[in-house]
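ok so I'm stuck.
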Amino acid sequence: MKENYFLKKRIGLFLVYAALSLMALYTLAPLWFLFVNSFKGQAEIIGDPLGLPERFDFQYIRRAMGEIHFFKALGVTAMITAVSVGLIVLVSSMAAWLMVRCKTRISGALFMIFVAAMLIPFQAIMYPLIQFFDGLGLKNTGGLILMYGGFGLSMSVFLYHGFVKGVPLGIEEAAFIDGCNVFQIFFMVVMPLLKSITVTVIVLNAMWIWNDYLLPFLVIGNSSNKTLVLELYFARITAGQFGNPWQLIFPAVFVSIIPIVIVFLFLQKFIVRGISDGAIKS
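replied:
not stuck anymore, here's the structure
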């Protein structure tokens, strides 16, 4: 009986690991495809898109970085992402904390409004929103940051709201007795306890903003300060008048995603922890 039990357990574990391995291969296959083709010329990509390059030549990556003005676009993208994410974290964390601590009908209604806003697609309001910001003279980088800050609030408030419930109220009361004001209680007592969910909010919003195409295209378009995704798009349009310039597209996409992939790899453990804890406490 014990032998049959352990045999079934081993078979079950083998099937689980086999399924997980297949899922991992399925997920990593596009990244491998992108990587190997970033070191090939046009003819080699078309002739053997799945095989390894004849030699790992970085000339295609260097050329792609020049075509998309990599370092300038990287600075613009990093600035927009950092400021937008900072705005989202500051506003959403404070809003969620106040809604949890001030339990009234108004706070409950506000929370439901934030949750409901997650269901509204951007495409449904993008043209009126762009016209409104254009009328205010904010169809520029500053307006783009404000839009990102607004669109990122709903999900971020939802995540923070569930997590703040797990923060003991007694800690805040003790800080108040010791003479702390509201801002000191929040920034010096509450915010350090929200570290894991804050990292989750940062990573999720940073990945979305970094890779976004539609909103920057509508707001800043073909201006001098383009994001990496816009630089990639316009470089592809310029070089692709007589076909698809794969020797530009693959290395350009590859260098564009490297920074955000590195950030994700370093902070990924906080994402699962933050989302699971927030969901349980909601």
